[in-house]
Each structure stands twice: as structure tokens, then as C-alpha cells.
Design a protein that fits this description.
It is a single chain. By secondary structure, this protein is of the alpha+beta class. The protein folds into two domains: 101 residues, no CATH class; 268 residues. Helix content is 26%, strand content 29%. It contains nine helices and 15 strands. Strands 1, 2, 4, 5, 8, 10, 13 and 14 form an eight-stranded mixed beta sheet that branches. The longest helix is centred in the N-terminal third of the chain and has 21 residues. It starts with a helix and ends with a strand.
């Protein structure tokens, strides 16, 4: 391709898509794509950028019309024929090869983001629901329980601009039961709603009014045969005019597991993404007076295999490479602003006020993912007994 571009008459170096577009008389987007594949790229990831058959034909016809030699044009054709052989041998289709290369080490993350955005749109259309933002925050602080040093935990979770695309959709917004790493019941079997009165009026679903839509969504709570609580939104108005934002908040004791427990050596916090959403934000806040814990790490995995990420051994995980990282936001809430949910820090501040906690005493860690695949689990893990 570089040989072809060298023969394009322009009177100047072709450094931008607009310059190549003007020189060849082709679409500027195609021109940029051609320039990108001529620049150094890591490994085979450049193959993701190759134009399709129709675009290649337009490019070569334009090059011939500008006097580029047939030998240079034929070299490009030969290279693309070799590429087509690679596709048919190893992947079957271009889309399949793109997926293989996107998940390869060193593949450019923007392609992965585009794939996840397309999956979000497809899943929203198929399932009939979508949300702008899904949030979850775990807050831990020290307490004395029965005269003994212990801890407590609050969980606040919710969705911004949740909307149905079909009126008959009934959608699960939460399910849970308190268990340890081996799925054994641990501590309180069920959390306590932060706003008991609002929860009572909504069948036990722990909704809170602050930041939720003025009219809370119609919800119901049921229990599975093995005792798991399942909260769901029932059918209702569709589209943006029928969209709602809602948040749920609960407390649980103890918050942290026992120290020096060989069966549960780490703290595992898992949030599942099961609703098509544009942005997923997972915060974990720890009071400065808690026992020291290890450096947080993050893992993301598909839950299509049926096992929750919290119980699944690392070797059995269907790992998803989403580029997720744990960001340390330090003490306080000031840097936890979410542009797509401007009053989010007010929600956390309101939670702290209800729990009589000073926000300045909380150290915050965050994982943020755009267009998370569904269903997937996001795990923040900390060593309970760091050296």
C-alpha cells in the first residue's frame, strides 16, 4: 500500500485523510483508514483496519484514474488475496478474524469498545430494556457487635435512565443471599433496607427515594426455593418518556469476613452486569480505621457459564479482557463525580449521613467500564491478611 501511495500525484506528503481524500477523490473516512494501515502497528492488529472489498475497489479505481501504475495496484490486490486466504483458513469470515484479533494481546482497545457498543444496541433491542448508567457502591466501616470489634457494610446500587423498549418486559434488578467463597450462608442471611418504610411500601425491595425518580418503579420481591430473594421491575411505560432512575440501599453485618480464616482468605466484592447499559461504575469505600487489607485487584468474566464470579475458581473463569483497572481515589468523595450522573456524590454523601460516617474517613476505589458485555461479573478482591 505504501508503494501505491508513493505514486499518487499530489505535490506534497500525504499525511492526513483530508489530503489523501483530495488527491484521490475518495471519501475521507476511507482515506484515513488507508493511512492508518500504512503506519506501524502492533503485530497482526493492523489486519482489523483493512477496508472491505467494496472500499478496496473504490480505492484502486481512484488510484488508476490518477495514474498509479498497474504493477503497484496489482501488488495491493495480491496482498488482499493473501489476506482473504488467511481469513478462510483460520477464521471463516472477516468478522470472526476481527474477534480473534481484538482479544489478542496488544490489540487496539477502540475496536473492542466498538464491539461492546454494538452488542449493547443489539442486546437492548433483543431484550427490550436498557440503562444509561449502572452503579454499585460498597461501603465498609468498623463497628462493635456484642462488645466485640467487628465491621459493617452498606451497599447502594441502581440505574440511571432505565427504560423499557417493550411494555411487557419484567426485569430482574437484584438477587442475593449472604454467602462466603464456598456459597455457604454467612452473617445476616438478608441485608436490612436503609429506608425501611419505603421498602415496606414496595414489598420489601430496598428502594430509596433520594435521586430516584419521583414516582418509583413498580417492583416485586419473590423467593426462589433455596431462599434467594429476587427483586424485579414489572412491565410499564416504554421509551424515554417512561424511563426511570432508581436506587436501592441496604446494610449488612458483619461487613468483613473473619481475619485469619483459611476458608475465606480474601474479601471478594462482586457486581453483575445483566442489563444493557452504556456505563458501569463500581465503587468500594473503606473506612481508614478498618484493619489493613491488601491492594485491590479487579477481574472481569462472563457469567454465561452459570457460576458467579465470586465462587468460580480463577482457572474456570471465562475471562473478559475489558481493560478494567482499579483506580485509587484516595480519601473522601470529591473525585467520585460521574458526568453522566451529576448528583452521584450527593447520593453517597446522603448514605454517609444516614450511617453517621464522615466521608473524609473513607478511601475510595473505582472500576469503570463502558458498555459491559452481559451477563458478566466484575470482582474487586483484597487480601484479608496482607503481610
Amino acid at each position: 500500500m505504501n508503494g501505491l501511495l508513493a505514486e499518487v500525484p499530489s505535490g506534497m506528503p500525504l499525511r492526513s485523510g483530508s489530503e489523501l481524500s483530495a488527491a484521490l477523490g475518495i471519501d475521507v473516512n476511507l482515506a484515513w483508514k488507508v493511512l492508518k494501515i500504512c503506519r506501524p502497528a502492533p503485530g497482526a492488529s493492523v489486519l482489523i483496519r483493512l477496508p472491505g472489498d467494496g472500499a478496496l475497489r473504490i480505492l484502486l479505481e481512484a488510484a488508476a484514474g490518477r495514474g498509479v501504475s498497474e504493477s503497484s495496484i496489482e501488488k495491493v490486490r495480491a496482498a488482499f488475496r493473501a489476506y482473504d486466504t488467511l481469513v478462510s483458513t483460520h477464521a471463516g469470515t472477516r468478522q470472526s478474524l476481527d474477534a480473534l484479533l481484538t482479544n489478542a494481546a496488544g490489540a487496539p482497545t477502540p475496536i473492542d469498545l466498538a464491539t461492546r457498543r454494538a452488542a449493547f444496541r443489539a442486546n437492548a433491542s433483543i431484550l427490550g430494556v436498557q440503562a444509561a448508567v449502572q452503579t454499585a457502591a460498597y461501603v465498609f466501616w468498623p463497628e462493635r457487635i456484642d462488645g466485640q470489634a467487628s465491621s459493617a457494610m452498606a451497599v447502594v446500587r441502581g440505574m440511571s435512565r432505565f427504560q423499557r423498549l417493550r411494555p411487557d418486559v419484567s426485569w430482574v434488578i437484584g438477587r442475593g443471599r449472604r454467602t462466603d467463597h464456598q456459597a455457604n450462608l454467612y452473617g445476616q442471611p438478608f441485608p436490612e433496607p436503609l429506608d425501611a418504610e419505603t421498602a415496606r411500601r414496595h414489598g420489601g425491595v430496598p428502594l430509596v427515594q433520594f435521586l430516584s425518580s419521583w414516582e418509583l418503579p413498580p417492583v416485586q420481591r419473590t423467593f426462589t426455593p433455596d431462599g434467594m430473594a429476587v427483586d424485579r421491575i414489572v412491565g410499564g411505560p416504554v421509551g424515554l418518556q417512561g424511563s426511570q432512575s432508581f436506587f436501592l440501599a441496604e446494610t449488612m453485618r458483619p461487613g468483613l469476613g473473619r481475619l485469619n480464616d483459611p476458608a475465606n482468605p480474601t474479601l471478594r466484592l462482586v457486581v453483575s452486569a445483566r442489563t444493557p447499559c452504556e456505563l458501569f461504575v463500581f465503587d468500594a469505600l473503606f473506612h481508614k480505621d478498618l484493619p489493613p487489607l491488601g491492594i485491590p485487584s479487579v477481574a472481569t468474566a462472563s457469567e454465561l457459564g452459570g457460576d458467579s464470579l465470586g465462587y468460580c475458581p480463577p482457572k474456570d473463569r471465562i475471562t473478559l479482557n475489558l481493560g478494567a483497572e482499579v483506580d485509587d481515589h484516595g480519601l473522601g468523595l470529591d473525585t467520585l463525580h460521574i458526568a453522566e450522573l451529576p448528583r452521584y456524590t450527593e447520593l453517597l454523601g446522603s448514605l454517609c449521613a444516614r450511617l453517621a460516617l464522615n466521608p473524609a474517613d473513607l478511601r475510595a476505589f473505582r472500576v469503570k467500564i463502558a458498555f459491559p458485555p452481559i451477563p458478566c461479573g466484575v470482582l474487586i478482591e483484597r487480601d484479608m491478611n496482607p503481610a
